């Protein structure tokens, strides 16, 4: 048998909104059965990119393919589904009517009763959507997304509002379906969730992919430690000359030195300078995220664009 | 296949015929409209009541005169059917904008449903509901027995009325975009009542002063009212036809313009 098709492929994809470039050249390939986190701060271009994978908008340049075909063609075949966080439901329909309505639009689907049972919403099948709680509406959205047995599932902040138990059960079922070949791409800004549940993390910032790998690979990308010392009249240039120093920040008499080789820095500071009160801390995924996405000096132009989109 | 993960063959999946158009969807859409109590009261019960008040009293039996085969009651019945049909078609049209605001349109874009099939379904729902409104008033009229006109005239009037209601389906879509929110009918209800009053649906234009009548000729309900009653009255001024066609064009273009403006949001 030939090599399995790439589930999602983006090559050289850009997207402009007027004069603002929301996506600045994204190349990405997702394999079938992968669970991938699309991680990045608000305004990084996540929603814009997902909209292009869904065929809701066209890239300004570059190419998007889902299982080797155009996104719209993949949607027409029921190969793609997405679950958004809010909206997307008619309040005056019952839960059952909503499932039947959606089901009627696809060729190959499971029976309504089975879909309702799997989603655990059989009891509320005759309830109006307007009278359903947020959690019940979310289960309905999942029922709608899964009824065509999609090959690609896109999720936007999927577990927002779920309790710990619900979250675990949710990811368990997602992983099970991934074993059957379903590719899952979920947008999130929860680092923990990305780290715990994704096979792979794609980190986006300012419209480009800044890192792509497993959780531990991402962490090691921004490896190193922070050495903090109290040091009046700090000679920052001397520190910078030491090997493996990434960054030196001076805040009053406090000096923060970001370094790969913290031992050398510490040895130098304590023996060659007047620095005292030394402290060394390791960076976590949070720091990796911040240093890779550069959220501290976020530009607001991309931010406002995505806000207008969602 | 040796890999642990099984793979999916996209060619094994089929595309639905007719762009996803189907009767289940159409049925649910019609059920939604019938469940809306406000729509039913304003589009079915109110026009029927108006017919009873204006068209079935002692004055209703009076012939239209001028050698025409019909009476005042028939004239009022056609007008009321148009009013009910226009109102329900407008509320159906307004649902398009509401559904976009709710994100339902976006949800539908993630299914195989073709946008053209969606518009066709919406048009069919508006047509069906307007048909229902027209039929209700006509059946009540027939049962009451006051309206009198030849059967073929009766049928032509009903069909023309139904056709004319589509102007207001387009108006509904247009207003739906201009007035966001789920209660567009709060604008459309009184608005259409005013237009109907001006257009001569509730009171014949001959009862108005010249200045009001000159304004009335320019309003959207005037033209379609004249067109709907033409088989009965045997008269159709050229400016009434221009009015009917003109307003249809304005509302369709307005709706299309707002819809295209809105595509960024999907």
From TrEMBL, chain A:
<dbReference type="GO" id="GO:0046677">
    <property type="term" value="P:response to antibiotic"/>
</dbReference>
<keyword id="KW-0067">ATP-binding</keyword>
<dbReference type="Pfam" id="PF00005">
    <property type="entry name" value="ABC_tran"/>
</dbReference>
<keyword id="KW-0547">Nucleotide-binding</keyword>
<dbReference type="GO" id="GO:0005524">
    <property type="term" value="F:ATP binding"/>
</dbReference>
<dbReference type="GO" id="GO:0005886">
    <property type="term" value="C:plasma membrane"/>
</dbReference>
<dbReference type="InterPro" id="IPR050763">
    <property type="entry name" value="ABC_transporter_ATP-binding"/>
</dbReference>
<dbReference type="InterPro" id="IPR003439">
    <property type="entry name" value="ABC_transporter-like_ATP-bd"/>
</dbReference>
<dbReference type="InterPro" id="IPR017871">
    <property type="entry name" value="ABC_transporter-like_CS"/>
</dbReference>
<dbReference type="InterPro" id="IPR027417">
    <property type="entry name" value="P-loop_NTPase"/>
</dbReference>
<keyword id="KW-0813">Transport</keyword>
<dbReference type="InterPro" id="IPR003593">
    <property type="entry name" value="AAA+_ATPase"/>
</dbReference>
<dbReference type="GO" id="GO:0016887">
    <property type="term" value="F:ATP hydrolysis activity"/>
</dbReference>
<keyword id="KW-0046">Antibiotic resistance</keyword>
<feature type="domain" description="ABC transporter">
    <location>
        <begin position="8"/>
        <end position="231"/>
    </location>
</feature>
<protein>
    <submittedName>
        <fullName>ABC transporter ATP-binding protein</fullName>
    </submittedName>
</protein>
TrEMBL record, chain B:
<keyword id="KW-0812">Transmembrane</keyword>
<dbReference type="Pfam" id="PF01061">
    <property type="entry name" value="ABC2_membrane"/>
</dbReference>
<keyword id="KW-0472">Membrane</keyword>
<protein>
    <submittedName>
        <fullName>ABC transporter permease</fullName>
    </submittedName>
</protein>
<dbReference type="InterPro" id="IPR013525">
    <property type="entry name" value="ABC2_TM"/>
</dbReference>
<feature type="transmembrane region" description="Helical">
    <location>
        <begin position="236"/>
        <end position="257"/>
    </location>
</feature>
<feature type="transmembrane region" description="Helical">
    <location>
        <begin position="187"/>
        <end position="205"/>
    </location>
</feature>
<feature type="domain" description="ABC-2 type transporter transmembrane">
    <location>
        <begin position="24"/>
        <end position="229"/>
    </location>
</feature>
<feature type="transmembrane region" description="Helical">
    <location>
        <begin position="153"/>
        <end position="180"/>
    </location>
</feature>
<dbReference type="GO" id="GO:0043190">
    <property type="term" value="C:ATP-binding cassette (ABC) transporter complex"/>
</dbReference>
<dbReference type="GO" id="GO:0046677">
    <property type="term" value="P:response to antibiotic"/>
</dbReference>
<dbReference type="GO" id="GO:0140359">
    <property type="term" value="F:ABC-type transporter activity"/>
</dbReference>
<dbReference type="InterPro" id="IPR000412">
    <property type="entry name" value="ABC_2_transport"/>
</dbReference>
<feature type="transmembrane region" description="Helical">
    <location>
        <begin position="116"/>
        <end position="141"/>
    </location>
</feature>
<dbReference type="InterPro" id="IPR051784">
    <property type="entry name" value="Nod_factor_ABC_transporter"/>
</dbReference>
<feature type="transmembrane region" description="Helical">
    <location>
        <begin position="40"/>
        <end position="60"/>
    </location>
</feature>
<keyword id="KW-0046">Antibiotic resistance</keyword>
<keyword id="KW-1133">Transmembrane helix</keyword>
<feature type="transmembrane region" description="Helical">
    <location>
        <begin position="72"/>
        <end position="96"/>
    </location>
</feature>
